[in-house]
Design goal:
Radius of gyration: 24 Å
Strand content: under 5%
Largest sheet: 2 strands, antiparallel
Region (Disordered): 1-72, 152-180, 259-281, 352-380, 481-501
Number of domains: 2
Number of strands: 6
Family: Belongs to the TCF/LEF family.
Distance between the termini: 13 Å
Keywords: Activator, DNA-binding, Nucleus, Repressor, Transcription, Transcription regulation, Wnt signaling pathway
Biased composition (Polar residues): 165-178
Biased composition (Gly residues): 1-11
Strand order of the largest sheet: 1-6
DNA sequence: TTGCCTTTGAAGTCG
DNA sequence: CGACTTCAAAGGCAA
């Protein structure tokens, strides 16, 4: 993972490091295969860029070198993108409610950014919205489902030009404001917000597609300031006492409720009342990769005309590894900010709160795994490995062995905790059976048994689960995240996240 | 209707 | 403390 030089004391999600990585021999072949796909994608990209530019679709921006450059300058890109999403928000509003996951509008806390390369904090440095709606809205741009034209008449940001989207050739009327589109802030209101509360000054919070059922525990001292936010939909169904809804909060039946709103475009009091009794669920903040996925998903879908998330995610995972250190660092930074925001909003919240939802099922699974010959424990025993210090590469990720999915055989050999190869690694057959049996319930599967599984993957990738030892020596990380070789223009680079904790 | 798939990373649990 | 597990998003798909 990217190692930020300016990390200071605070972790950037993880103290990751980038490891130069040379893949195995077959990598070239894979790269060629991938190159074909990439070329196709590139063609699609170029067409998409043209198309999307006219549509102001941020998704295609990444295909544009200029867009890439902008992405490398978060502050700038946010400024430039802002109007787009405000416009998006207008569209959403026109349809009644913002449609998206309960979390898709997760706003980001734009804190003073000690991680900026120059260490400076521009007026916009705390206005960097991170996530966007899942569909067609740039995630690195503010989620601005609602325009100030609707809720904050004529308040213009002193920081943003009236027309900041000239680069995209689309004139934007003066919709720009660093005031949340649906938060009507009085002049000077933002100034009352501490930097750490900067997200609230962002137009990043889409109106949740569902109401919040309970007031947030108010740990925010700035509540008085925000109590002025008076969007009727926000205030009608419960929210943070500050008046700021947070997408991380969703009703237990959030999906259903969203559908309810989406279909009717109007809040319907009856079912709403019923659900108000239910406790809201505060979801985990998104990590760097999740943020990246949110940003890129629409683009990949458009390029590949795929909608199956599993396949999309495979592609995104590959692209994630193809990102440069700097590019990844941006997402780590954004994720860090989001965690900070989350912590500030919900001081008492813990990921533990959402733990155990599937506890029963997990237990059942664990029981199954005890009888599963492909379980890491069983495989370690089979290969004579130390249960405490060794791990069986294949079984470590028994359900995600991409290489095996690609029909390339077993992915790795057992590795000791110090990263050194273990003598007498399992035979390919053993390993192969070990992996494939992970897909079967009670017997060691053969490759033939596994064949149909390969068909599940509509997007063969060049992802290879590297054999250990981990080139980084970070066996811990290596064991939890397989090395992935990526067919990219810079295939010599490979990022290896470390736990960093 | 529910859960799986699939990805990475953060954070939880467990031994 | 390290290993392992769960959850976060997404939407198609199968049971």
């Amino acid at each position: 993972m990217p190692q930020l030089s300016s990390g200071g004391g605070d972790d950037l999600g993880a103290n990751d490091e980038m490891i130069a990585f040379k893949d195995e021999g077959e990598q070239e072949e894979k790269i060629q295969e991938n190159a074909f796909t990439e070329r196709d994608l590139a063609d699609l990209k170029s067409s998409l860029v043209n198309e999307s530019e006219s549509n102001s679709s941020p998704a295609a921006a990444a295909a544009d070198p200029e867009a890439i450059r902008r992405v490398q300058d978060p502050q700038r890109v946010y400024q430039e993108k802002l109007p787009d999403h405000m416009e998006d928000g207008i569209k959403h509003q026109d349809t009644g409610m913002y449609k998206g996951s309960a979390y898709s509008g997760y706003p980001f806390l734009m804190l003073s950014d000690p991680y900026l390369p120059n260490g400076s904090m521009s007026p916009l440095s705390n206005k960097v919205p991170v996530v966007q709606p899942s569909h067609g809205v740039h995630p690195l741009t503010p989620l601005i489902p609602y325009s100030n034209e609707h809720f904050s008449h004529g308040s213009h940001s002193p920081h943003l030009p009236a027309d900041i989207n000239q680069k995209q050739g689309v004139h934007r009327p003066s919709q720009t404001s660093d005031i949340p589109g649906f938060y009507s802030l009085p002049p000077g209101g933002v100034g009352q917000i501490t930097p750490s509360m900067g997200w609230q000054s962002q137009s990043v919070y889409p109106l949740p597609s569902c109401g919040f059922r309970q007031p947030y525990s108010s740990a925010l001292s700035a509540g008085a300031t925000f109590s002025r936010f008076t969007h009727p939909l926000m205030l009608s169904s419960g929210m943070h006492t500050t008046g700021i809804p947070h997408p991380a909060i969703v009703p237990h039946s959030g999906k259903q409720e969203m559908d309810h709103y989406d279909r009717t475009m109007k809040p319907q009091p009856e079912p709403k009342r019923e659900k108000e009794a239910k406790k809201p669920t505060i979801k985990k903040p998104l990590n760097a990769f999740m943020l990246y996925m949110k940003e890129m998903r629409a683009k990949v879908i458009a390029e590949c005309t795929l909608k199956e998330s599993a396949a999309i995610n495979q592609i995104l995972g590959r692209r994630w590894h193809a990102l440069s250190r700097e590019e990844q660092a941006k997402y780590y930074e954004l994720a860090r900010k989001e965690r900070q925001l989350h912590m500030q909003l919900y001081p008492g919240w813990s990921a533990r709160d959402n733990y155990g939802k599937k506890k029963r099922r997990a237990r059942e699974k664990q029981q199954d795994s005890n009888s599963d010959p492909a379980s890491p424990k069983k495989c370690r025993a089979r290969f004579g490995l130390n249960q405490q210090t060794d791990w069986c590469g294949p079984c470590r990720r028994k359900k995600k062995c991409i290489r095996y999915l690609q029909g390339e055989g077993p992915c790795s050999s057992p590795v000791s905790s110090d990263g050194s190869a273990i003598d007498s690694p399992p035979s390919p057959l053993d390993t192969l059976q070990c992996i494939s049996s992970a897909f079967t319930s009670d017997k060691l599967a053969t490759p033939a048994d596994f064949a149909h599984k390969e068909q599940r993957n509509p997007f063969p990738t060049s992802i290879h689960v590297k054999s250990a030892p981990c080139s980084s020596g970070l066996t811990t990380h290596c064991s939890s995240t397989p090395h992935v070789s990526v067919a990219s223009s810079d295939s010599s680079k490979y990022s290896v996240p470390s736990t960093g904790t």
